[in-house]
UniProtKB/TrEMBL annotation:
Subcellular location: Mitochondrion
Positions annotated as zinc finger (CR-type): 231-312
BP term (GO), one: protein refolding
An MF annotation (GO) of this entry: zinc ion binding
UniProt protein name: DnaJ homolog 1, mitochondrial
InterPro entries referenced in this protein's UniProt entry, alphabetically: DnaJ, DnaJ_C, DnaJ_domain, DnaJ_domain_CS, HSP40/DnaJ_pept-bd, HSP_DnaJ_Cys-rich_dom, HSP_DnaJ_Cys-rich_dom_sf, J_dom_sf
Chain segments annotated as coiled-coil in the UniProt record: none
J domain mapped to chain residues: 70-134
Biased composition (Basic and acidic residues): 477-489, 515-525
Cited SMART domains: DnaJ (SM00271)
Keyword Repeat assigned: yes
Length: 525
């Protein structure tokens, strides 16, 4: 599998699982062992629904207004009844025929008629319109001059004119065959906007579909610094939810089938009566909106009707070179399978969740990291710093010799280009640099000879502030030959090697006084 780095801030994309799982890098940190945890709801089996539709799914929606031929007759009031009498009659009948309390099969239709009648008579404008045009002004099947369609509830700028293809109250322009009978301006408008008009009910978009997505799984993996530099593979054990092999995910025992939900009569919604003459529909909690349930005793035993079972799997994850501590890898489709049993619609589409591997990079005793660059501190002896030389520098590919300039100080830096980490997500590609910082090692203890040499060096450099304990230094004039008498061997050797004039003069005087005299003329005679 080929790894690729994605944005740190970007969330995981939800795509259909492919044959070969892809790995992508994201930021955030972790550490691998055998433990794995699941992201999502705590209860098992879990279900997350993802609707692939441009329009969002609403938890509540208003039901279609059911038209009534005679709203006065539906409420049992006269045409001269007051608003208070109409409201009182409506509340009494709505309570009597509400589907949640009245199990009569005709109660639902009766309640719809009562609701529609109250919607007309409770609105003074709609009531006046009904009194003027009659039931045809609010009947979708009505035609002719007064009204081409369903009253004033269309909600579309063009729906008030039936002749333009709407279902408004003014059908004289051809609601059912008048002027412009074959033109629907709402369809034209929706073609440009991609919407279903302005509140028109009953149409469903053909491309709307719902896909059940399983939960993601998260694990942690720890790798060494060199593994992060070179890339590696890790074998990870997880226990995801997998599709049940017995029922193939439908949650049913062999030879059984689903039945309609008794709580919502198979509609998937529950109707609730609300104050003010409105009814609202919400998703049925028994069937989770599917309209069907698995009857008791018909559940698949291995998965208990959920359609998924937990299985242990081993997955090999390729970790790319250059990965940083805190990044995470995503393996598409390696997470939990979606529960397509009792909590899902029959033959529902589904896809697995993803596996996220949080990567932690262990610290290295030699190297430190700054993005794609590697930092290394090289200790060099004092003499190498003073005299110059070379130093051995470790790299990701072995050891290299680097020249040390004369007079190198602690804190001096050099850069070895292209010897760092691989750059992830960079257009330039390649590797970072290895940045070396020198640190001069100062000896804490000196032997007698070492101290003597250093004190001699201090004398030669004119350092009068350095401490001297070996007695090789002198407060007398160094150009005075007497100051070079009885000096130590090392200092005498140093002065000889450096051709010190006073030291040479002292040697000449000493050789003249060693008892060997040149014969004079008298001796020759």
């Amino acid at each position: 599998m080929n790894p690729s780095l994605i944005s740190k801030a970007a969330g995981p994309a939800r795509v259909l699982a492919q044959n070969a799982p892809r790995i992508q890098c994201l930021r955030k940190g972790a550490q691998l062992h055998t433990a794995a945890w699941h992201v999502g709801s705590r209860d098992r089996p879990s279900l997350r629904k993802g609707t692939r539709s441009p329009s969002a799914k609403r938890s509540f929606h208003a039901t279609n207004a059911v038209q009534s031929k005679d709203p006065y007759g539906a409420l049992g009031v006269s045409k001269t009844a007051s608003a208070g009498e109409i409201k009182k009659a409506y509340y009494g009948l709505a309570k009597k025929y509400h589907p949640d309390t009245n199990k009569d099969p005709q109660a639902k239709d009766k309640f719809a008629d009562i609701q529609s009648a109250y919607e007309i008579l409770s609105d003074p404008k709609k009531r006046e319109q009904f009194d003027q045009f009659g039931a045809a002004g609010f009947d979708p099947s009505g035609g002719g001059a007064p009204g081409g369609g369903g009253g004033f509830g269309g909600g579309h700028p063009f729906s008030g004119f039936g002749g333009f293809g709407g279902q408004g109250g003014f059908g004289g322009f051809g609601g059912q065959g008048g002027f412009g009978a074959g033109v629907n301006f709402e369809d034209i408008f929706s073609a440009f906007t991609g919407q279903q008009g302005f509140g028109r009910r009953g149409r469903q978009q053909a491309y709307q579909q719902e896909i059940l997505v399983g939960d993601n799984i998260e694990v942690q993996a720890t790798i060494s610094f060199m593994e992060a530099a070179k890339g590696t593979s890790k074998t990870i054990s997880i226990t995801p939810l997998s599709t049940c092999g017995t029922c193939k995910g439908n949650g049913l025992k062999t030879g059984t089938s689903r039945s309609a939900c008794s709580a919502c009569d198979g509609s998937g919604t529950r109707v609730h009566f609300m104050q003010g003459g409105f009814q609202m529909a919400s998703t049925c909690g028994t069937c989770d909106g599917t309209g069907t349930v698995i009857p008791k005793g018909s559940e698949c035993k291995p998965c208990s009707g959920n359609g998924v079972v937990r299985e242990r799997k081993t997955i090999t994850v390729d970790i790319p070179a250059g990965i940083e501590d805190g990044m995470r890898l995503r393996v598409d489709g390696a997470g939990d399978a979606a529960a397509t049993g009792r909590a899902a619609e029959p033959n529902a589409r589904s896809q697995n969740g993803d596996l996220y591997v949080f990567v932690r990079v262990a610290k290295d005793p030699k190297f430190r990291r700054d993005g794609s660059n590697i930092l290394y501190t090289a200790n060099i002896p004092l003499t190498t710093a003073l005299l110059g030389g070379h130093a051995e520098i470790p790299t990701l590919d072995g050891t290299v010799n680097v020249k040390v300039a004369t007079g190198t100080n602690t804190g001096d830096k050099i850069t070895l280009p292209g010897m760092g980490m691989k750059r992830l997500g960079s257009r330039r590609g390649g590797n970072g640099d290895l940045r070396v910082e020198y640190r001069v090692s100062m000896p804490k203890y000196l032997s007698a000879n070492q101290r003597t040499i250093v004190e001699v060096l201090a004398d030669e450099m004119g350092d009068k502030t350095a401490k001297r304990v070996m007695g090789v230094g002198s407060s007398r004039d160094p150009n005075d030959p007497e100051s070079h008498k009885d000096e130590g061997f090392l200092k005498s050797l140093w002065h000889t090697l450096t051709n010190n004039p006073a030291h040479q003069k002292m040697n000449e005087d000493g050789s003249q006084n060693d008892g060997s005299k040149k014969p004079d003329d008298n001796d020759k005679k």
